[in-house]
Amino acid sequence: MSDLGLELNDWLATLREEYLGGFLREGGASVKVAVVATPEAGAAVSERVLAEARDQGFWAAGVDAGLCKVHLLHNLFFEVARQIEWDVLARDFLRAELEAAGFRLPGGDSLDAGTVALVNDQHLTVVRQELRMALTRGLMRDPGLSRQFRLGALAICQAELQPDELRRELAQHVLSWLRGELPRIGPLRDAFIYQRIDRHTARTMLLSTSAFIRKTGRQGLVVVVNVSRYSLPKPIDDGRNRYSKAAALDMWETLREFVDGTDDMQGAMFVFVTGPEFLEDEERGLRSYSALHLRMTDDVRDRRHPNPLAPLVRIAEAGVC
Fold this sequence. Notes:
By secondary structure, the protein is of the alpha/beta class. It has twelve helices and six strands. A six-stranded parallel sheet has the order 1-6-2-5-4-3, with helices on both faces. Helix 3 (73-82) runs parallel beside helix 9 (202-215) and helix 7 (147-161) runs antiparallel to helix 8. 42% of the residues are buried. The model has no long low-confidence stretch (mean pLDDT 92).
């Protein structure tokens, strides 16, 4: 890894031109680590990356380890899910499927089958059959989405197409399940979902989320995660999350899994923001977990110029303002 700092504007330009504007749009994925000098710089980097992602047509979510124990991957997924407007995504997905099936779209947000039938001068039974086929083709048979995710998305879509009380209630239970706020799994039986989202299934749910977002016409998913608190040698007693060395190792293992799993992602970028302790602390930082250290280290590097395409970059303090 280079010891040279990279100006934030230069790094953002690289993300915009090489990743957000090209590689990710074509279905690629990337994991980046940005090392910043101060907590204030970390907040600035997170804000700028998220703003850039939104400007480029991505759904973006920011997560702070001070408030979310992200080394437990289901917590990371829940926090991302809380920042997604699932009903908006469902409507955009349905609009794309309806247009692909040759239907004219009704005005406004209403996509119930009766309105679609009226606008297209079709019998309601015919429209419902076409909609079932569209959901089967575009959602339930998509191998890029996990089974649990497909069933949850199906319930949300059905509540848009046939917004009766039972379907709306089931969709609300699914939303609570996605956000980690459903106390019991029982209410999801009608959606054929029988399992909570845990640290073992959260990864496939994240991958499915980015793939589904692309099906709605957006470019993909960008998540910025501030993990600087994991490598602090002396945790700050400020009422926010404090982490043990064991938790830090779990975090670096989770990060390593993200790096190794990029081939399974579609249109997704995960940016992990951390402080200088990540590079400097031998017991809690990068060097404490050799598997991640090997993946973050450049085999060849220029001694005079930092590499903006590297998986790990140092952001120059002067470049954060």
